[in-house]
Amino acid sequence: MACIKVLDQNMINMIAAGEVIERPASVVKELIENSIDSGADKIVVNIEEGGRKLISVTDNGCGMDTEDLRLAFEPHATSKINSSADLSTISTLGFRGEALASISSIAQLTATSRTKNSLQANSVSIDCGQNKNLCPASADYGTKIQVRDIFYKLPARQKFLKSANTEMNHITECFKRIALANPNINLTLIHNKKEIYNLHSGDGLKNRIRSLFGNSVAEGLIETSSHEKNVNIKAFLGRPEISKTNKNTQYFFLNGRFIKDKFIFHALNEAYRSQLEPNRHPAAFVFIELPPDDFDVNVHPTKIEVRFYNSNLIHSLLLSTIRQKLLSTNMDVSFKTSPENFERKQHIKDAMEDFFKKNRPAAHQQNMPFSSYTKNSANKPQFDSRNFTAPSMPESSQSVAPKNFIQIHNSYIVSQNDNGFVIIDQHALHERIIYEKLKKRVSKNSLESQKQLVPETVELTQPQAENLNKNLDIFEKLGIQIEPFGPNTYAIHSFPLLLTKADPADFVIDLIDILDSKLSGTNSDQLLDEILNMAACKAAIKAGQKLTDDEIQHLLDQKEKTDYSSRCPHGRPTTITFSIPELEKQFKRT
Ligand SMILES: Nc1ncnc2c1ncn2[C@@H]1O[C@H](COP(=O)(O)OP(=O)(O)O)[C@@H](O)[C@H]1O
Ligand SMILES: [Mg+2]
């Protein structure tokens, strides 16, 4: 008995629609992309009830004549490719010829279009793939497509639509992606007659980001670019302060198309490694341009995934571009009076007040830090940095040059610089300094270790001992020589010089713990990173530890020489800067 039937075209379209049209936002994406492909530079998107009631996209592009309008809604009808060879050099957003056929099979659709050199517009309406009707209409040149009552004949699909709010959030997200990829197009988004975005071409990418994500994101970005081996990269990288607990401010584009790609994600995360606190994600807007035959977009119906022919090259160029920029940028957090900083600000203010109360200067004021203000004729404090380099003042009883720092609460160092002053968290900074040194030396296998005159012993349980024996290579890499010494006891014969401040037995136990908890599923780079982190933390100067002037000076000198010194290895800030203009604003002098 024959049971097989060939499906009719409308069924085929509806099935195809299932792949391309997931929800109203997918319709919005396809329609705006068509408008962009038509050469439009002005696109207005008008939505009602999260797209459940109406999705309308109007453009001023090339338009369609009667014949094109008739054909555009047929399956696999496209003006964008002719032959299979064209598939490898696609420069338009669409090419599959599926979108209009799919959309018109699942909703009521009206398209009105006029080419530039025609006086007459035409309109076609289709009701869920049926009753196609074409007639003359009056309209400006360009195309307007209106989609009403999506899925109204498909209750099973309609059931999956979420509230108007949720659907609108998806639409807005889709609009943002397209808007970022096309800064040269005027784009408007209207919801329930209210304008959500009105973006102008020519304002530049940074301003587009500002309009879409707000001032604090835009101001927290560092711009960089590179051009190497036919790969052009332009990136706006978020400073750690604007990092998020989710990846919602990470946008990657390839030749004007928003994409998601695991190699790009990985390169970004690698570049930011140890710059951010755990579970924070950087904001990043990355734009990659490649020759069209270096990747394949025909991997997935929604074209959000691509296949790079040389993904290693893309990965390494991105990683180096981002890393170099982060490395060469001063990431010290500047003191701003935004609400999130308020608590920290209050804390520092209290600590400083407390300090000055307890240490009110007596006679030799000119040698105190912060004393090098001179007054100009307007009685405004002017900073004179020469005071810090000149020999001590004649009135001074001391003969050493005045220092430009103090330690407060045995935890923070306040140091004056040309633009104001900085507050440094001594533990966090020292942690970063040790971490960077350890990392460099371990990677070059040049970590110096010291023979212990009297080896310290450490007691290990049976599982701990087994773990130690399994990982002797890691111990060796770190310059820790450890051998059995008695029942359950091990002797530590040598220990890294850089970690002299850490207690060897304590360190060995912690190291074994990390190895134990991380054995499965962590790659060796991440594991080593975690170990170095722990080592740096143990060996660093602690909060509450009094430092000599020499030690402080040494720490400040090292800061200058250390990569990523603005953040501790866990990503917390080491330094907060206070600029003179900011202080003047705070004291209401301006
Ligand atoms: N806004 C528009 N302006 C001009 N032509 C359009 C527009 N939208 C669609 N078209 C025409 O209709 C064809 C089919 O569109 P679509 O189904 O989205 O397939 P694709 O974009 O993959 O070619 C396009 O190739 C194009 O020629
Ligand atoms: Mg299309």
Task: Note down, in words, how this protein is organized.
The protein is α+β, with helices and mostly antiparallel strands and 590 residues long. β19 (405-408) and β20 form a beta hairpin. An 8-stranded mixed β-sheet has the order 5-4-3-6-2-1-7-8. Strands 9-10-13-11-12 form a 5-stranded mixed β-sheet. A 5-stranded mixed β-sheet has the order 16-25-21-20-19, with helices on both faces. α1 (9-20) packs across α4 (99-105). The chain binds adenosine-5'-diphosphate and magnesium ion. Adenosine-5'-diphosphate binds next to α2 and α4.
Task: Tell me briefly what this model is.
By secondary structure, this protein is an alpha+beta fold. Helix content is 35%, strand content 24%.
- Cα distance, first to last residue? 91 Å
The biggest beta sheet reads: 8 strands, mixed
pLDDT averaged over residues: 86
The low-pLDDT segments are 362-388, 390-399
Approximate strand percentage: 15-25%
Cα-based radius of gyration, to the nearest Å: 32 Å
Tell me the overall shape. Answer: elongated
* Strand count: 25
State the helical fraction: 25-40%
Name the hetero compounds present: adenosine-5'-diphosphate, magnesium ion
Our count of helices gives 18
Secondary-structure content class:
alpha+beta
Strand order of the largest sheet: 5-4-3-6-2-1-7-8
